[in-house]
């Protein structure tokens, strides 16, 4: 079942920002002024949707997206009500990303593919448009589902080679939004420390490691703190120009929209400003 109301997909632009948890309206205003077209919020709960409204109230063109709402922790009916409340005030600036999360972090995690489909059935019944939702997708099966039951896919913790393969699966048309971690700091020691800290938390999550194995990484790459190759591919390390090059690599591989998760000291107004300048957003 699909909803009869299916507005045109949102225009996201090429580059956005990805941040864990909630963000302030002040940061949203700053990112919009710098030329970033979207702000993606990592793992938000439906109870935080009021914060999304405040960010949209404070800005004029910035799109806010969830990357992603966990289906096990957030009932679909509540998410649908939150979605409609937001788009009633801001009809063309909110994108709902949903996904099944990680087996290791979710006690209820059983038959995730079926659970995701069931969740989407509820969103359909509640008239959350297919064109205004994306799916967290790593493997081919959910990537295909993302173009059947959503506007596209939002893979996380992937190198440009995954982006290339995902685009081959999706073909032309479906949206492909890729997250890339970057360090906007030329100091190699600090950059590696941040890469280790950021990637290490994922080395024990099977959905990520299984996906990376399919891309040619081996068990040796996953031995803590992670191999230089793995850390270098998943976290672009260096100054603003290196960070910008890492984002452009995904765009060149087929991503429609690339979102930068800026690590460390660069995760502030000055870091975002340097990245925006390197990307020539203005």
TrEMBL record:
Coiled coil: none annotated. InterPro entries: Lucif-like_OxRdatse_MSMEG_4141, Luciferase-like_dom, Luciferase-like_sf. One of its GO terms (molecular function) is oxidoreductase activity, acting on paired donors, with incorporation or reduction of molecular oxygen. This is LLM class F420-dependent oxidoreductase. Residues 26-125 form the Luciferase-like domain. It comes from the Bacteria. Transmembrane segments: none annotated. It comes from Streptomyces roseirectus.
């Amino acid at each position: 079942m699909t909803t009869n109301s299916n507005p045109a997909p949102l225009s996201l632009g090429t580059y956005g920002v990805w941040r864990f948890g909630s963000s302030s309206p002040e940061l949203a205003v700053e990112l919009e002024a710098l030329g970033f077209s979207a702000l993606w919020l990592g793992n938000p709960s439906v109870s935080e949707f009021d914060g999304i409204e405040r960010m949209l109230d404070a800005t004029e063109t910035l799109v806010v997206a969830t990357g992603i709402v966990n289906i096990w922790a957030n009932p679909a009916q509540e998410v649908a009500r939150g979605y409609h409340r937001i788009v009633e005030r801001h009809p063309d600036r909110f994108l709902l990303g949903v996904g099944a999360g990680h087996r290791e972090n979710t006690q209820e995690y059983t038959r995730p593919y079926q659970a995701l489909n069931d969740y989407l059935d509820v969103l359909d019944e509640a008239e959350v448009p297919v064109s205004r939702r994306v799916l967290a997708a790593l493997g081919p099966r959910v990537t295909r589902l993302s173009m059947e039951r959503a506007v596209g896919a939002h893979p996380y913790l992937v190198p440009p080679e995954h982006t290339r393969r995902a685009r081959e699966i999706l073909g032309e048309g479906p949206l492909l939004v890729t997250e890339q971690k970057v360090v906007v700091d030329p100091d190699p020691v600090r950059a590696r420390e941040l890469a280790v800290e950021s990637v290490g938390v994922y080395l024990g999550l099977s959905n990520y490691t299984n996906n990376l194995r399919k891309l040619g990484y081996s068990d040796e790459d996953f031995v803590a703190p992670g191999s230089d190759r793995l850390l270098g591919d998943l976290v672009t390390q260096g100054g603003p120009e290196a960070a910008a090059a890492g984002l452009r690599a995904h765009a060149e591989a087929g991503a429609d929209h690339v979102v930068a998760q800026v690590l460390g000291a660069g995760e502030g107004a000055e870091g975002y400003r340097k990245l925006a300048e390197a990307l020539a957003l203005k």
